[in-house]
Amino acid sequence: MAIPRRAGHFPSAHPSRVTRRRPAPGTRPLHRAALVLLAALVVLAGCARTPEDIAPAEKPPEVSAEASGLSVPLDDFILSRLDIQTIEYAEDLLTRACMRGSGFDWEMLPPPARTDTDPLHRRRYGVIEPEVAGRYGYHLPPLAPDQQAREQVWRRRDALPPAERRAAYGHDGQGGCRNTARTRLAEGVPKLDQQRLNGFIGDTFEASQRVPAVVAVFGAWSRCMKAKGFAYGMPLDAAADPAWARSAQPSPREIAVAKADVGCKRTTGLVAAWSTADSHVQLDAIATHRADFDRFRQARDAELRAAEQVIGNG
């Protein structure tokens, strides 16, 4: 039986990392803004390695200033990766107290990190970092040490003895101390229409690609790629090439395409143009649907306050 867990690696407009999480049927994680269902973009992470496939000694490249500096207006309404770590830590504190009451201990996840080692928008516009392209192509870099530490805890939870598993997750994987902890954290938190929020995130991202300035820069990017010997209509086409999913390691051609992709993005100013259009489209959506976004913000803030209160009392 799979252990329900919070999606610690999550997409913004598309997945930034493939995860090994397998929530049990019917489980509703509390990180309500973390799951954005954009089927057209899931392929960007389709050939990524899972944490088990990555050698722990392999050091991932440092996040570039450009990637770490990317943000969009909808960030103000969703939980960041570090927010989710805060909520997970609070959930663990409550779970540990409950488990000890049943005669068991509970291994805590590491405390929330100070900085995000894999920023939410790092691959929002595809691969944009030369070092990442040169080492991994469109495959994903290994997890940073702090993320590896979290994954190791989750793997050990997958192997809990039966009695501890029942105490933690109940007989059906949806009860036990974890459910008690999540119920406690949800007290007083406004309910959120997650599907509606995901719809705004997905729709605005798709709309940003139809902005005339973005269409124009996509054309310039495509011509640049063709001059280098690679025929792709737009950046997401290059990232989603099914050839990359055929191997756990990037091929020489994949590396060559990714390096050309990053170079053409820089030559054409694609990231700046697309990011600007992305922000304008999102701001328009926020202004048009102010009541919805007020509710989204209230729910996010209430969830974080509940977690911070538990940690403060922990």
**Mean of all residue-level pLDDT scores:** 85
Number of strands: 0
Describe the global form.
globular
Helical amount among residues, as a percent range? 40-55%
Structural class: mainly alpha
Distance between the termini: 30 Å
As residue ranges, the low-confidence spans are 7-56
The portion of residues forming beta strands comes to: under 5%
Rounded to the nearest angstrom, the radius of gyration is 21 Å
User: What is the number of helical segments per DSSP (H or I, 4+ residues)?
Assistant: 13
Largest sheet: none
SSE topology string:
HHHHHHHHHHHHH
Q: How many domain modules?
A: 1
Region (Disordered): 1-25
Protein name: Lipoprotein
Organism: Nonomuraea antimicrobica
